[in-house]
Amino acid sequence: LGLFGYKRGTDSDRMASALLHLCLQNAWKEKEKVEDLYQLLDQLEKQEEFLKEKTRCSDSDVKKLLKKITTATIGSSQRMLTHGVPLRIEEFLKNDMSILYVNHLADQHQKDFFIATLTTELYRWMLHHPSESLQLLFCVDEIAPYLPAGTRQTVSKEPLQLLFKQARKYGIGCLVATQ
Question: What one-character DSSP code corresponds to residue 27?
């Protein structure tokens, strides 16, 4: 939702989250595939009345979510979500070093989304590949925008904190830098 422009922890973010959850849950029950944003948009449009009835949300809540997801299917957001190599930690381990450069992404929301996705994938991978010795070193330069001080939340803050708390016991080292 952060990638679509929702500010985390707001009422509109919670409503959009509830709408997506119900939509995907209903699609799963109906055995309908939702494998990309276009199929998600189709499901949201198809289930619009059902969603409004279940959540008692306003018509504008559903329309706003549809508009934001539609916008993500255009331009650099669309390229980020539909092109490129699948994010698999095993692929990075084939090399001595893998560097992922995020400054080409359009804005901080996209960068934050990518770091959150990468961190979540690394966390899932480490749970299935524990090691008593160091098997991977995860480094993030200029960490400040992804891990802001205080109570300010970003999409990546929670996954990063979880990884930092547990990575060592799975053989993952973490190194961050900032000015």
Answer: H
Work out the average pLDDT over 94-122: 88
Residues in the chain: 179
Question: Per DSSP, what are the bridge partners of residue 175?
Answer: 139
User: What is the dihedral angle through the alpha carbons of 107, 109, 98, 134, rounded to the nearest 10 degrees?
Assistant: 150
Residue whose C-alpha is closest to residue 65's, from 45, 86, 90:
45
Question: What is the per-residue pLDDT for 92?
Answer: 87
User: DSSP state, 32?
Assistant: -
| The pair of three-digit structure tokens given for residue 148, joined into one six-digit string | 């802001």
State both tokens at 48: 């619009």
pLDDT 10s digits, 39-71: 889 999 998 888 888 888 888 888 899 988 888
Q: Is 36 left (phi over 0), alpha (psi -120 to 50) or beta?
A: beta
What one-character DSSP code corresponds to residue 1? -
- Closest to 155 (Cα-Cα) out of 123, 120, 125: 120
| pLDDT tens track for 116-130 | 989 999 999 999 999
Tell me whether strands 172-176 and 136-140 are parallel, antiparallel or unpaired. Answer: parallel
Q: What is the C-alpha separation between 74 and 9, in angstroms, rounded?
A: 26
Task: For tokens 């809540």, name the residue.
Answer: 61
Residue 109, both tokens: 């929301």
